[in-house]
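TEACHING EXERCISE
Course module: macromolecular assemblies
Task: Read the component lines below, then compare them to the predicted structure of the full complex.
Student: A.B.
Group: 4
Components provided:
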Amino acid sequence: MGRPPCCEKEGVKKGPWTPEEDMVLASYVQEHGPGNWRAVPPRTGLLRCSKSCRLRWTNYLRPGIRRGGFSHHEERLILHLQALLGNRWAAIASYLPHRTDNDVKNFWNTHLKKKLALTSSSSSPPTPTTPLVARGQWERKLQTDIDLARRALRDALSVDDAASPAMISSGPPAPAAAAAYALSERNISVMLSGWAAPPPARKGLSACNPAAATPTPGGAAAESASTAGASSELTTDCCSGGGDSSVSNCLPSSMLPACDDGDATATAAGVAPLSAIESWLLLDDSGEPQLALDEQLLDVALRNYAF
DNA sequence: AACTTGTCCAACCGCAAGAAT
DNA sequence: TATTCTTGCGGTTGGACAAGT
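Instructor-supplied answer key:
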């Protein structure tokens, strides 16, 4: 039997969400917590399908989401992570605490892709001595070049918040037309700032990485928990024991701990454990110049990206 | 001023994976 | 074990807006 549609097509509203709908959805999630999206439309009276509700929440209403331009550090981070992970936007976004996968994806498609295209076209084309590195080859290479990867990742993850654009509360000036709505959106975020419903223990990513998959109470909390939670994303595959293991292949097995009871307990208690990968990243305090590594990683990104 | 072209991004669609039954 | 349900993810689209002609 084929998979049924997520919702009835008739009587379902599509298109942009109105502030009123946002308020209804935000209020519902505030009261019941995210999850069981199937129940949201009938319970709230929203003429939206469950999928749309979930998407609206995760991409827009969820507290702590940063809107506006990407900083240089974020840009570099995306470049590096895209070279490492490919188009796994959710995984990449998990390293950018206040960005959604949709935002990262859009930013990649509208900015970085072109940037890379320009850079690659202006630089010397691949020659027989610099063959295009297939992803699998790159991953194998990375596996044997852990030190390079470690330093590059650490560098990429050292996002300087001071250099980042302001958060929602003091975000970049919005177009006048959107100002009113931005205000209501802001209000919703403020309203939800105290939201503290415990994240439901769900499968895979959610279980290992509550910060990335579920809202955390307040921006500060989300910020503090995000990095460790995000890093746990890399352990998801090993936890679930399935799926694409390319990330696992990139890293030594010792850096990919199982989701043991200790981790689970710490996560459940709201204390994000220092993940193995972060420990790994923090090991090297040599403080060597990172510019060359940046260039190497960018080179990898350029060669890895097929036009 | 009117039209065309380009950019940005919110939202939709379909697939896959995991959980539930 | 098989089937169904629910959610997450990545690719793509459509509309609003800006810039250019």
